[in-house]
Design a protein that fits this description.
single chain; about 300 residues; alpha/beta; 4-stranded parallel beta sheet; 3-stranded parallel beta sheet
Length: about 300
């Protein structure tokens, strides 16, 4: 369900409070109905280790990159999530290219009879969210793995994007100018739902910036590209264009997008506090949503 972006500021503040309160509640109540692991001597089912210490393990799943800065950035994000939720087991995993790989993390958790929630550090329901993550989860017995929704769209994500633009030099005067515009650079996908998610993020960012036109652009697999999006803005008289980075970490695509910026380019989101709160929000929502025993993808 799409949140009302017109109430962005109050929504983001409220979600920060709700995330903390819900986490406290979930640390004492386990919402899943299936039996866990081996039985104790008294015949009662034995909860997994993670359930006794703050809930199922939160596994933040990044894509992976050959850029050494990417893993460091995601590690910093995971550390910020840990700081927000002491006592919760939070781990980083990658789909490919970087260790630890998701399959290895899930094998380790399964060996310890620990349940997990996979939170994709991705911005829309593309191939990795729809196929790679469910495939990895299905390999774990007894439906012990849930899959949370991707990061976008959400007001907390828009907060992080706007803040990174401000750090790069965007001001309130730029929001009021009729010559400015923004290109929202994202990885790209052939999945229409993933592209729609980026379009919705772009629309919400434009509203957050006071009505500035924000054109989504893609580094691969979709159009427009960043140069094409810049030309679209220029055709509307928006010659002073900034590039917003819809990437969690530095890498090939983020670097290429920034290199096309004719003016300012925002940094990837990294360990922005709003992104860390969003990771926890996705985790919490997955625990309160109905789930099937094997493949659980919550999209709220």
């Amino acid at each position: 369900m799409t949140e009302p972006y017109s109430t962005f500021d109050s929504t983001a503040e409220l979600l920060g409070t709700i995330t903390t309160q819900l986490g406290d509640q979930l640390s004492t109540v386990h919402p899943w109905g299936h039996a866990y692991g081996a039985a104790r001597g008294d015949g009662a089912p034995r909860p997994p280790r993670a359930a006794r210490h703050g809930g199922p393990t939160l596994v933040a799943v990044g894509h992976g990159s050959r850029d050494p800065r990417a893993r460091a950035a995601l590690s910093q994000l995971v550390e910020r999530v840990r700081e927000l939720r002491p006592g919760l087991d939070v781990r980083l995993a990658h789909i490919e290219l970087n260790a630890p790989l998701l399959t290895d993390v899930l094998d380790d958790l399964a060996a310890g009879e620990q349940d997990a929630v996979l939170v994709p550090l991705l911005f829309g329901p593309g191939y990795h969210v729809k196929h790679d993550l469910p495939g990895a989860a299905a390999a774990v017995p007894d439906g012990r793995v849930r899959i949370a929704a991707p990061l976008g769209p959400h007001p907390l994500l828009v907060e992080a994007l706007a803040d990174r633009l401000a750090e790069a030099g965007w001001t309130s005067e730029d929001s009021a100018s009729r010559s400015t515009g923004v290109v929202l650079a994202a990885a790209g996908s052939r999945d229409p739902e993933a592209l729609d998610a980026v379009r919705r993020i772009a629309a919400a960012l434009g509203e957050r910036l006071g009505g500035v036109p924000v054109v989504p652009a893609y580094a691969s697999a979709a159009t427009p590209t960043v140069p094409e999006a810049l030309r679209l803005l220029a055709a509307r008289g928006r010659h002073r264009a900034a590039v917003a980075s819809c990437f969690t970490a530095p890498g090939l695509f983020a670097g290429r997008a920034a290199a096309h910026a004719p003016w300012i380019a925002a940094a990837p989101l990294g360990d922005h506090p709003a992104l860390a709160r969003l990771v926890l929000h996705r985790y919490d929502r997955s625990l309160t949503a109905p789930a099937s025993p094997r493949r659980q993808l919550t999209t709220a």
